[in-house]
Write a structure and sequence with these properties.
Elements (H helix, E strand, L loop, with lengths): L2 H33 L2 E3 L23 E8 L11 E10 L8 E13 L1 H8 L14 E6 L7 E10 L6 H17 L1
Antiparallel strand pairs: 1-2, 2-3, 3-4, 4-6, 5-6
Helix pairs in contact: 1-3
Length: 183
């Protein structure tokens, strides 16, 4: 095998391992949120805008993964699509900050609405949201440039490499997120 071929195989194998680590991070958040009585609005979906077509290679790999959380409804029921307030957790694999980032926060609307309509233009972007210009946001930041329907949108962020285990995820992400959502 050529040196280029070996390099390509190593890169793909590394990426597969990296994706497993990102999956573990999101699973840790998911398990902790579920343990706090919150569930995801969109079941297990965490990627949109991907492509399986041979002529669209830019869509073969996700650039971000997202989760949104609301209080769990009664047993055997799905959460309401229209929400006034929800928590979110995102991982940006290729943000403009130049390192993979986690971003989490709480969004509130003036009236119940579809969270997708808020998340899509503000948060679901290949290079991360326009307001994320620092790799570490340890205090709640309020996004001032937001749609009129959004009452508030606060967030924190850090490089994903700082979220090394479930204990750190609980302390840095989940506990502050649940506390803020409950406020």
């Amino acid at each position: 095998m050529s040196e280029l071929g070996e390099s390509a195989i190593r890169a793909i194998e590394w990426l597969a391992t990296f994706h497993k680590d990102v999956s573990k991070l999101i699973s840790s958040v998911e398990d902790n949120m579920r343990g706090r009585g919150l569930i995801s609005l969109w079941t297990s979906t965490s990627i949109s805008g991907s492509s399986a077509t041979y002529y669209n290679p830019s869509g073969w790999m996700p650039r971000y993964l997202y989760r949104s959380y609301v209080p769990a409804p009664q047993e055997d029921q799905r959460p309401e699509l229209l929400q006034r307030r929800w928590a979110f957790f995102l991982v940006y694999l290729t943000p403009k900050c130049k390192e993979p980032m986690a971003l989490w926060g709480v969004a509130s609307l003036h009236a119940p609405g579809n969270p997708w309509d808020v998340m899509k233009p503000i948060l679901l972007r290949d290079d991360g949201p326009p307001f994320l210009d620092s790799s570490n946001v340890s205090q709640w930041e309020n996004i001032k440039d937001r749609p009129e329907s959004v009452e508030s949108l606060v967030y924190r962020a850090c490089p994903i490499v700082e979220l090394k285990n479930g204990g750190i995820v609980e302390e840095v992400v989940v506990s502050p997120l649940v506390e803020r959502l409950s406020a």
